[in-house]
Amino acid sequence: MTDLKHKEITEKIIGASFEVHKFLGNGFQEVIYQRALAHEFRKARLDFAREIEQDIYYKDLAEPIGTRRADFVVEGKVLVEIKAQVKLDDVHLAQALNYLRAYRLEVGLLINFGGKSLEFKRLVLSERKMDR
Questions:
Q1: What sign does the dihedral 33-120-76-97 (CA atoms) show?
Q2: How many CB atoms lie within 10 A of CB 13?
Q3: 55 contacts: CB under 8 Å, gap ≥ 6
Q4: What is the pLDDT of residue 55?
Q5: CB 105 within 8 A of CB 77
Q6: Taking the CA atoms of the chain, what radius of gyration do you get in angstroms?
């Protein structure tokens, strides 16, 4: 089996997410899950930044064309985007991948608290795709 990049960090994040979903279940707004997850991250001694704003640039323009905020960047290495939807759609995946590019990170987790069971997707960008 291949070794997953930032495996220890992503395992702690996923474990914290299961803990939140086990306690809260589904049906709350994203911000509720975000606050609970921040608490679990602190308990797991994970260093994280919440909703840090990132400039979005287009081609060779010097000025940013907008900004985006990912839910979390954990240990400066893993982007975490959370949802509270009945089911994840392709648009949620595209958003998380775009955030990975914007933040120039290779590994991300898209976590959905909205279903009866917790759903998560591990996202990995190659360096080639990051330079777009």
A1: negative
A2: 26
A3: 64, 66, 67
A4: 85
A5: yes
A6: 15
Spans of all domains in the chain: 7-56+63-124
pLDDT tens digit string along 79-101? 999 999 999 999 999 999 998 98
DSSP string, the chain: -PPPTTHHHHHHHHHHHHHHHHHH-S-S-HHHHHHHHHHHHHHTT--EEES-EEEE--TT-SS-SEEEE-SEEETTTEEEEEE--SS--HHHHHHHHHHHHHHT-SEEEEEE-SSSS-EEEEEE--HHHHT-
Candidates 3.40.50, 3.30.70, 3.40.1350, 3.20.20; correct CATH number of 7-56+63-124? 3.40.1350
CA distance 68 to 62: 17
Question: Cα separation of 99 and 1, whole Å?
Answer: 28
